[in-house]
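Late entry, evening session. Most of the bench is empty. Finally got around to the prediction I had been postponing all week. Sequence below, unchanged from the version circulated by S.P.
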Amino acid sequence: MHDYLLDNIIKSTSNDDALAGKTLLVTGASGQIGLNIVGLALARGAQVVGLYNTKSIDFVHPHLKWVRADLGASDSCAAPPANALIHTAPIWLLPPRLPALVAGGIERVVAFSSTSIFGKRQSANTTEMAVVQSLTAAEEQLWKMATEMKLQMTLLRPTMIYGMGLDGNITRMARTIRNFRFLPVYYPAKGLRQPVQARDLAEAALSVWENPKTYGKAYNLAGGEVLTYRRMAERLFIHLGKKPRLVPLPFMPQLLNFLAVCVPSTNVNGEIAERMNRDLAFDNGPASNDFGYSPRGFLEGDVIV
């Protein structure tokens, strides 16, 4: 699947030489943002080194080198020479590896964090709070290291990511709709959302790469359309060719908490339901002003869910 997605990204992108002569190191290259960055960068003439952990990709390109590396392992990580790093793997994996990567020639870093640092800050779930703490600590550490190492760094914080059929939000909702023909919600499901396509995030990462306006800054990156959770779900039904059928569950938070105790591997909790009525919309203005960020609307264009 990954090789098909990557091939499709390259074929659907207008070839140019905007990045000719540049070498780009992409971590998390088998993920939905990473795949888009690799494909777009190759189409624009860059030499790309794609780091992946377990998901190998049977895709060959004369300007692409795959490197298997576990960024979370305790052993040292080889640092392929590159001009810039775009880090799409979990951000807390980067600080321990950054010195070795800089030794390989990296002078510019674009790292993806998450708006979960704000949206889940008040979560009562211990697992979610641990994620927020990891995000916060990693960001703070990276800013400090960037200053000490004289690196130009930009942080990008996406909202709900979708578009490649690899996410755990929109794709999971779509799977439920396909399998059961209905979707449970915590009524009235009025919280605002701005789902963002992985392709738009990849475009953003390549746009900020050599843009001095973005050096030393962090940007929240949301989609181009603000929807209530309920309307977002209804639009997904329509996209899948099905009549919207939302089933209100008054005790959904308690039900999900009970499920989390009984089946921990489900990775659900009551906070997921509670957030259906919390606004998680963000201002794209700074990104639009500094590097022309203009994301597409929900389910607009060629997306996989």
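Two things to note before I forget:
The chain is about 40% helix and 15% strand.
The mean pLDDT is 93.
Will write this up properly tomorrow.
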